[in-house]
């Protein structure tokens, strides 16, 4: 599910969140997601997780923007949030890569770090921007391999 196009206010808000180091915007973005998709999400009762960030980007930014949004969304909807995924390697930036290059770039870059015993077999992955879907596909593959039956995602925008 996608909140909107990668333009206008949404694009500017994401830019401020990611590159302007303004993580307070994440609460407003989560509220927008809850307004649009809240009923559907609550009905499914998933565990909420997020696309992991590389250690380098975490050091640079100080936070993972997808995690910030996911935690606010989980709090708004009173749903459990868990860190289930981690980047196990630094990858080349996806910016400017073709779909095929992006798919190859992320293969094997994500690990499952959740518990073996799943208290919920449904999971919702949160990310900010969907470009080719390579990162989300890798995250979903890892989560399905870990035992989740339903894996779906919500992003703020599609570029």
Keywords:
globular; Rossmann fold; 159 residues; alpha/beta; 20% strand
Molecular structure report:
This protein has helices spanning 8-19, 25-44, 55-61, 65-77, 99-106, 134-146; strands spanning 2-5, 47-50, 85-87, 110-112, 122-130, 150-158. The chain is an alpha/beta fold and 159 residues long. It has a single domain (2-158), classed as Rossmann fold, CATH 3.40.50. A 4-stranded parallel beta sheet has the order 1-6-5-2. A two-stranded antiparallel sheet has the order 3-4. The two termini are 13 Å apart.
Number of helices: 6
CATH architecture: 3-Layer(aba) Sandwich
Largest β-sheet summary: 4 strands, parallel
Mean pLDDT: 92
Share in helix: 40-55%
The total of beta strands comes to 6
Number of domains: 1
Which series of helices and strands comes N to C?
EHHEHHEHEEHE
CATH class: Alpha Beta
As residue ranges, the low-confidence spans are none
CATH topology title: Rossmann fold
Q: Strand order within the widest sheet?
A: 1-6-5-2
Rg, Å, rounded? 15 Å
Instruction: Give the assembly state of these chains.
Output: single chain
Task: Give the strand content.
Answer: 15-25%
How would the global form be characterised?
A: globular
